[in-house]
């Protein structure tokens, strides 16, 4: 993770974040999904601007370029962007609910350089500081190995067909303990 810096995302970052997400979806999913599934992924993936408004979305940079982005949420929606159907902005209870890791993307030029791991650490630390003791996320097939290495365990496999073509995803979770 040498040479990487992180900060909270702001509204001014949205165009650059959208570009990173589009590149990640198009390139990093190719080994796992068909072209039709990649196209469908654009309906069920993307930026949730609520994360930026909540101050829970991070940008990771390398040499002044956005290398990746991702965040966590204290809201019920597990995954999906602003445009994805079925969103739920209800607040979670840290005493009983897992926080969510959301919208993690690494620019293909920075893949496998510690960007995703740094984002996970930032999310875990921030959620723990707010009293959450568990996290859940919805992993793509390309993200699943990263999450497994970081200690997340598979909870369920799903096929999301809201984009027209079924896209395989895996809900994963991890106990993070409580700060204290």
> So, CATH architecture?
3-Layer(aba) Sandwich
Strand arrangement within the widest β-sheet reads 1-2-3-4-5-7-6
- What overall form do the CA principal axes indicate? globular
Average per-residue pLDDT, rounded, comes to 94
**Which fold does the CATH topology refer to?**
Aminopeptidase
How many helices? The count is 5
Instruction: Quickly name the level 1 CATH class.
Output: Alpha Beta
Q: How many separate domains? A: 1
How would you concisely characterize the structure shown here?
This protein has 180 residues and is α+β, with helices and mostly antiparallel strands.
Folded structure, characterized:
This protein is of the alpha+beta class. The chain has one domain (4-175): 3-Layer(aba) Sandwich (Aminopeptidase), CATH 3.40.630.30. The protein contains 5 helices and 7 strands, in the order βαααβββαβαββ. The chain has helices at 14-28, 35-44, 49-54, 115-129, 144-149; strands at 4-8, 57-62, 65-73, 99-106, 134-139, 153-160, 167-175. A 7-stranded mixed β-sheet has the order 1-2-3-4-5-7-6. A hairpin with a 2-residue loop joins strand 2 (57-62) and strand 3 (65-73). It is globular, with a radius of gyration of 15 Å. The mean pLDDT is 94.
Would you spell out the secondary-structure blueprint of this structure?
Layout: E1 4-8, H1 14-28, H2 35-44, H3 49-54, E2 57-62, E3 65-73, E4 99-106, H4 115-129, E5 134-139, H5 144-149, E6 153-160, E7 167-175
Parallel strand pairs: 4-5
Antiparallel strand pairs: 1-2, 2-3, 3-4, 5-7, 6-7
């Amino acid at each position: 993770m040498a040479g990487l810096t992180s900060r909270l995302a702001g509204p001014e970052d949205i165009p650059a974040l959208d570009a990173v997400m589009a590149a990640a979806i198009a390139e990093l999913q190719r080994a796992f999904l068909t072209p039709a599934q990649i196209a469908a992924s654009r309906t069920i993936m993307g930026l949730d601007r609520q994360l930026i408004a909540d101050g829970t979305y991070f940008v990771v940079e390398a040499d002044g370029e956005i290398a990746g982005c991702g965040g966590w949420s204290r809201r019920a929606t597990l995954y999906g962007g602003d445009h994805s159907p079925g969103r739920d902005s209800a607040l979670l209870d840290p005493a009983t609910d897992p926080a969510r890791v959301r919208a993690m993307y690494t620019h293909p030029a920075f893949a496998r350089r510690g960007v995703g791991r740094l984002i996970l650490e930032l999310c875990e630390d921030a959620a723990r500081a707010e009293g959450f003791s568990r996290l859940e996320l919805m992993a793509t097939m390309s993200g699943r190995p990263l999450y497994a290495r970081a200690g997340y365990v598979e909870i369920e496999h799903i096929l999301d067909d809201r984009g027209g073509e079924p896209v395989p995803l895996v809900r994963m979770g991890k106990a993070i303990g409580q700060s204290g």
